[in-house]
Design brief:
Blueprint (H helix, E strand, L loop, with lengths): L1 H16 L10 H12 L8 H36 L5 H6 L4 H19 L2 H12 L3 H26 L3 H8 L4 H35 L6 H11 L3 H29 L1
Helix pairs in contact: 3-5, 3-7, 3-9, 3-10, 5-7, 6-7, 7-9, 8-9, 9-10, 9-11, 10-11
């Protein structure tokens, strides 16, 4: 009870500052506008030509998410190796990493902060200006943002795992890559793969949103239909989007359960 009161006291100034007033939704003008907007959604568009276009846009959305995540992995894996201290020989020997290693590790961590601090939507806006409209901007936006996210979390997962096996391999003359592959990765593999599949699910949702700024996929088609006031098409694409996210969530959850 005390916690709820404290939360209300803290949140109230924020609600006042943002002029949040849910009663506005119940005003006659708002209700009338809502009814006009929703009435255009029925019946949903279901012509063969439209459904084929929507299917292609849906597949493009999945392709954007998958390609972007793949590029993010190509960048995140080497950055993770540089950002983590689990395979540092100097730290193992003296308990403290060399200055050059600490500087490199800190620089990589700041790079990961920079990449993930810019939302993929902002990257998409920038790349649409550079490469033009289309899925390329979406792929690059996901690749940069998710590279920072994956690199940070991968490094934390590796460093939080039991480093005994890795340390033993390094002490017995194994190279850093071998110590990582045979020591740290087997223990953390399930958690790493689980987080990767979760990020793929997030990338699918993000690729739809980026479509509204011209980065291709289902979102771009939905934005075009909204501008043409084609409510039936928007309704159909919303249903497809819900089904797509539900399928991605189901696949991701199933994979995480199997890996866990």
């Amino acid at each position: 009870m005390i916690g709820a009161l404290l939360l209300a006291v803290l949140c109230w100034p924020m609600l006042v500052y943002t002029e949040f007033n849910p009663l506005t939704l119940l005003e006659a003008q708002s209700l009338e506008a809502t009814w006009r907007f929703l009435s255009d959604f029925f019946p949903p568009a279901h012509s063969a030509e439209f459904l084929m276009m929507a299917l292609q846009a849906t597949w493009e959305t999945v392709a954007i998410a998958t390609a972007g995540l793949t590029l993010a992995l190509l960048g995140a894996v080497p950055l993770t190796l540089m950002a983590t201290s689990i395979v540092s020989v100097s730290q193992l020997e003296s308990g403290r990493m060399r200055l050059a290693g600490r500087l490199l590790r800190q620089a990589v961590r700041w790079l990961l902060v920079l990449l993930r601090s810019v939302p993929e939507l902002v990257w998409a806006l920038l790349f649409v200006r550079i490469v033009g409209l289309g899925p390329t901007a979406g792929v690059l936006a996901i690749a940069l943002t998710y590279c920072g996210m994956l690199g940070k979390v991968y490094a934390e997962i590796l460093e939080s795992s039991d480093g005994h096996a890795t340390a033993t391999l390094l002490e017995n003359g194994a190279g850093r890559l071998a110590a990582l592959c045979y020591g740290a990765l087997p223990e953390a593999a399930a958690e790493l793969l689980s987080y990767t599949t979760y990020r793929w699910e997030c990338a699918i949702r993000g690729s739809v949103v980026m479509g509204f700024v011209g980065a291709g996929g289902l979102g771009q088609r939905m934005d075009e239909s909204l501008k043409m006031l084609a409510g039936g098409e928007v309704a159909s694409m919303l249903l497809i989007f819900v089904l797509l996210v539900a399928c991605a969530d189901g696949i991701s959850s199933a994979l995480r359960k199997r890996l866990g």
